[in-house]
Amino acid sequence: MSAAGNKSSIPQQWQQSGWHWWWLVALLIVADQFSKWLILENMPLYSRINVLPFFDLVYVRNYGAAFSFLSDQSGWQRWFFTAIAVVISVVLIVMLRRQPKSMKAANLGFGLIVAGAIGNVIDRINYGYVVDFLDVYVGTYHWPAFNVADSCIVIGAGLIIFDGFFSNRPDK
């Protein structure tokens, strides 16, 4: 069959692997970066916009990792967390390439984690910090501010855990 007759330029083995979610990974990275751009362009640092009784938009900078872990360090953590995210993304992409398409929950979870990791790596490289802007709270208790990339990582991890408990794959 000629190249013009192919449905896609993606190799057949990739179409049958877990990496068939690549389009969602790309879309989520764009959504993450676009949402952060909107915040950077329209909100002063530390400003707050009340959206719902339990949800605000805020603009904060996270120089560390989850829950601002190591954010008070001298700057080495920027490259440390960038390297970790790149390594994890590469490992997950390789895993996605090797896993069958039928492992839907795990593959989607890995893809979401890759999208989130890359979204936050882009921030660390461009700004030296991650832009966080989603603030969920109950009364005076606030969950640490997060972003679309962080949401992808959490949902992805949840899907992988779900797959681990509820998949019907036979043991090898």
From TrEMBL:
Protein localization: Cell membrane
HAMAP family in alphabetical order: LspA
Upper taxonomic lineage: Bacteria, Pseudomonadati, Pseudomonadota, Gammaproteobacteria, Alteromonadales
Gene Ontology CC annotation, any one: plasma membrane
Protein name, entry field: Lipoprotein signal peptidase
Pfam families: Peptidase_A8
Gene from which this protein is expressed: lspA
Its job: This protein specifically catalyzes the removal of signal peptides from prolipoproteins.
Topology of this chain in the membrane: Multi-pass membrane protein
Organism listed in the record: Aliidiomarina shirensis
